[in-house]
Amino acid sequence: MSETIRDGKYVELTYKVTDRKSGHVLTCVEFPLGYVHGHNEILAPAVHRELEGKRAGDVTEVPIDGNRIFGARDESLVFTDRIENVPEEYRRVGTSILMESDTGRMRSFIVTRMDGETLTVDGNNPLCGREVLFTLEIVTVRDATGDEVRAGGAPAIAPDIDPSTMRPV
């Protein structure tokens, strides 16, 4: 009998997020993402609740209202500027820019639009104002090791280094 997802279990899954209105896939994670259930909340709490009791091989769909999780869109977080005022390294749609407000608060903005004259950044979460569907496929469920519990998922594996040459082996 296969194990079920509950606190302390190491879980690997793949998922995709689809905009329910347009049907467009917003993101897709095809390489299994690993975490320790109950120790590392990597997805929305509603998704984690839905995973409880599932087994390897199960596929589940979880509808999420982005407004409930991230709040309503705030159009005051959308800025457009002339492209010559924007550093070259930010002139690509999808680029994330970390900015600091006058009060010292950090916020991530994403370049959402660009033409020959202007560039637009948006500080809203990309799921804000959207209803999405998470489709998750559970790949692995097993007891987590002590290292995995401490790391909240698969521990980072350092490269094997030969100290005499200080080069990767």
State the helicity in percent bands: 10-25%
- Arrangement of strands in the largest sheet: 2-1-8-3
In total, the number of domains comes to 2
SSE arrangement, N to C:
EEHEHEEEEEHEE
> CATH top level of the largest domain?
Alpha Beta
**Which fold name fills CATH's third level, the topology of the largest domain?**
Chitinase A, domain 3
Q: How large is the share of residues in beta strands? A: 35-45%
Radius of gyration: 20 Å
Distance between the termini: 41 Å
Number of strands: 10
Structural class of the secondary structure composition? mainly beta
CATH architecture descriptor text of the largest domain? Roll
Low-confidence blocks of residues: none
Average pLDDT for all residues: 87
Q: How would a textbook summarize the main sheet?
A: 4 strands, antiparallel
Q: What is the overall silhouette?
A: elongated
Number of helices: 3
Task: Name a few traits of the molecule.
Chitinase A, domain 3; mainly beta; elongated; 169 residues; 11% helix; 2 domains; four-stranded antiparallel sheet
Write structural notes for this entry.
- The two termini are 41 Å apart.
- The protein has helices at residues 45-51, 66-70, 146-151, and strands at residues 9-19, 25-36, 59-65, 78-82, 96-100, 106-114, 118-122, 131-143, 161-162, 167-168.
- Strand 9 (161-162) and strand 10 form a beta hairpin.
- The radius of gyration is 20 Å and the shape is elongated.
- Helix content is 11%, strand content 42%.
- The protein folds into two domains: 9-69 and 128-151, Chitinase A, domain 3, CATH 3.10.50.40; 83-122, no CATH class.
- It is mainly β and 169 residues long.
- It has three helices and ten strands; from the N terminus they run ββαβαβββββαββ.
- The strands form three sheets. It has a four-stranded antiparallel β-sheet with strand order 2-1-8-3. A four-stranded antiparallel β-sheet has the order 4-7-6-5, with no helix packed on it. It has a two-stranded antiparallel ribbon with strand order 9-10.
